[in-house]
Specification:
four-stranded mixed beta sheet, six-stranded mixed beta sheet
């Protein structure tokens, strides 16, 4: 299956309420459409994650965050790179559901630089949930073989590809203050 065919297949699954695993800049991620309560709930169950923590949304363009962030997408600069991905904490709109924001009045977002993750956002024409492929408290999958062993039977599709050059999960920073909340 070609790269474009695998992206189209993953997008069809996402749009029908599915959960996928895919490579990102530093680790494999689990993804779903952010407005799909059932799909996001599956991810929280798979990860054994506390919904109060909230989830990250990735985008290929800040306009995919319109309606999610309480800022003008034209004025948002979400600096990030393959080697040093940064997830930004930004003010959330009132429309962001609790299953994405958790117990926060903000939302975590990243403009992804990974070609597979970017292609997924572009094909779905949407931001996507992107949380590391791990059971909460355990190391995330960085290897496709480990990913298949741990999550192959729990997700609807694993998008072929490899993680980028970063050595783990992204750094987390507050967009307003620049304060680092989690180092990479």
């Amino acid at each position: 299956m070609s790269h474009s065919q695998s992206i189209r297949k993953a997008t069809r699954i996402l749009l029908k309420g599915g959960v996928i695993a895919y490579p990102t800049e530093g680790v494999f991620g689990l993804g779903a459409m952010p407005d799909d309560f059932d799909a996001v709930g599956r991810i929280l169950t798979i990860k054994e994650r506390d919904p109060g923590m909230g989830l990250v949304l990735i985008c290929s363009d800040p306009w995919q965050l319109a309606g999610w962030i309480d800022m003008n997408p034209d004025s948002v600069v979400l600096d990030s790179s393959d080697e040093h991905p940064v997830t930004w904490i930004v003010p959330a709109t009132d429309e962001v559901p609790w299953w994405i924001r958790g117990e926060h009045d903000s939302i975590a977002v990243r403009q992804t630089t990974h070609p597979v993750a970017r292609a997924l956002c572009e094909d779905a024409d949407s931001a996507l949930v992107s949380t590391s492929a791990n059971i909460s408290g355990r190391p995330p999958a960085r290897n496709p073989y480990v990913l298949r062993r741990l999550f192959g039977s729990l997700v609807d599709y694993i998008v072929p590809g490899h993680c980028g050059p970063a050595h783990g999960a992204s750094e987390i920073r507050d967009l307003k203050t620049g304060k680092v909340l989690r180092s990479a």
